[in-house]
Amino acid sequence: MTKGYQMPAGFLWGGAVAAHQVEGAWQAGGKGVSIADVMRAGAKDVTRQVDAQPTGDAVYPNHWGIDFFHTYRDDIKLFAEMGFKCFRTSIAWTRIFPNGDEALPNEEGLKFYDDLFAACQQYGIEPIVTLSHFEMPLHLVTADGGFRSRKVVAAFLKFAQVCFERYHDTVKYWMTFNEINNQAMWRDPHPLLQNSGLQLDDSENSEEAMFQAAHLELVASAKAVSLAHLIDPTLQVGAMIAMTPIYPLSAKPKDVLMAERAMRYRYYYGDVQALGTYPAWLKRYWARKGYAIEITAADATALKNGTVDYVGFSYYNSLATEYSADNPDYDYDEARSVVPNPYVPRSDWGWQIDPVGLRYGMNWMTARWHKPLFVVENGYGAYDTVVDGQIHDDYRIAYLRDHILEMEKAVVEDGIELLGYTPWSAIDIISASTGEMKKRYGLIYVDQDDQGRGSGKRLKKDSFAWYQRVIASNGEQL
Ligand code: BGP
Predict the structure, then answer these.
(1) What is the SS3 assignment for 416?
(2) Which of 32, 247, 302, 399 could lock 94 by a disulfide, CB 3.0 to 4.6 Å apart?
(3) Calpha distance 102→142 (Å, rounded)
(4) What class of enzyme is it (predicted)?
(5) Parallel/antiparallel/unpaired status of strands 236-242 and 173-177
(6) Are 75 and 87 in contact (CB under 8 A)?
(7) Which positions ≥6 away from 286 have C-beta within 8 Å?
């Protein structure tokens, strides 16, 4: 046992999942087809392909998830046994608006989340809800091109309004778009589709297309924040940023400048959501590249008026970058600018393991955005094995212990305001980037393989009892 620090009273210890990765029941209760439903599983290091519609022979793991749509009461009971104060999930947009553009919402879908949030409340567990977690209605992609179109801004705001009005008495903490900044990896079509519903056209500049679509998504996010505060001023609406600090590979001044460029590029989304305006460097970057990004006066006003109440973020790992003579302008391009960091170990999926990076990222965001933070994802994907009904995931306990300790130092020693911690994931789920079940993150094991076969039985991993003690001691017993 490692001695940690007590977190402030009321600290929200919990766990996180996302609707499309757990619920399954992909056509139940009037639900429509989302982009998550047409993404086929890929190999360990290949992002998933997207089909125009599900085809008979392909494997679509989000069709079954872990059947949370039917098992949520029993799963939430297990979360309560661990001592959860909160539980993060998302509302599947297509359960509420199956195609995204209906005049009226789907009552069956609304009722499902009434029941889910009531089940949380029964145990005193606070729901933390992401409005869009990589699960945009497919129709809005195929008919309108996702956030290429201002029609999708309107569709998202209609969805947000229905959710805020329906659930504002049971859900106080919201986030608009999951990992909105992941589209900074614009050379990979997967993050563009997941975040903005953007499918690239060969004839266009994909970076310019990303900036324009991201702009409309940022406008949608800001307008949703303002709408929430109109409906219920007690609502707290956060950004959700994928925080992956990018270090200079050396102390060479040009490496340091390259890392500064990398960070400002990867996190300008947070600048807009927390500060309400675009950074000056980005407008000069667009001009230098000849990008014509349409920002109306009304957009600028919406961004200024719709700044977030807090910054939710995910943290898994850090990266590194170095200056290159063939890039004298220090233009950051994730696919080309990131280099391995030789000073940190890696997971089975090659993700760098760097607990100090969590404390670094928390300090960086606080100094830049001056908002309360919320760690809404942090976890270790691994191959877990069942031995005599037990799962000895000491590697996951070690990862979480090391990261929580750095998080607690950021709060107690650095004075950072932190609302809570919801590790990824409360329970084994379908991997977002690969569609695999074998990449397990959960504190609870689910007996199911990559093809959805298995009993679905839930088993408590060793990390279950460990995390139970962390929560019971409010972070002191690690
Ligand atoms: C983040 C997503 C989560 C989760 C996590 C782990 O990007 O917000 O949905 O999936 O990544 O990634 P993966 O499942 O690909 O290992």
Answers:
(1) coil
(2) 32
(3) 15
(4) hydrolase
(5) parallel
(6) no
(7) 211, 292, 293
**ipTM of the complex model:** 0.96
- 179 CA to centre of ligand 1 in angstroms: 9
Q: Whose CA is nearest to atom 2 of ligand 1?
A: 432
200 vs 146: CA distance, rounded Å = 11
Distance 297 CA to ligand 1 centre (A): 35
Q: Whose CA is nearest to atom 14 of ligand 1?
A: 431
Residues 6+ apart with CB under 8 A from 261: 330, 331, 332
* Closest by Cα among 42, 43, 45 to 350: 45
What's the Cα-to-Cα distance from 154 to each of 101, 151, 216, rounded to whole Å? Answer: 9, 5, 10
10 Å CB burial of residue 202 (0-12, 13-18, 19+) is: exposed
Catalytic residues: 179, 377
Amino acid at residue number 55 = T
- Who lines ligand 1 at CB under 6 A? 18, 21, 178-179, 242, 314, 377, 381, 424, 431-434, 439
Are the C-beta atoms of residues 179 and 240 closer than 8 Å to each other?
Answer: yes
* CA-nearest residue, atom 12 of ligand 1: 432
Give the distance (Å) from ligand 1 centre to CA of residue 432. Answer: 5
Q: Which of 39, 88, 346, 424 to mutate to test the pocket of ligand 1 (most atoms within 8 A of CB)?
A: 424
Question: pLDDT means per 10 residues in the chain (478 residues)?
Answer: 94 98 97 91 55 77 95 98 98 98 98 98 98 96 96 98 98 98 90 91 93 98 98 98 97 98 98 98 98 98 98 97 96 91 89 96 98 98 96 98 98 98 97 87 97 96 98 98
Domain architecture of the chain: domains with CATH:
12-472 (3.20.20.80)
CA of 433 to the centre of ligand 1 (A): 6
Q: Locate the ligand 1 atom nearest the alpha carbon of residue 431 and give its number.
A: 14
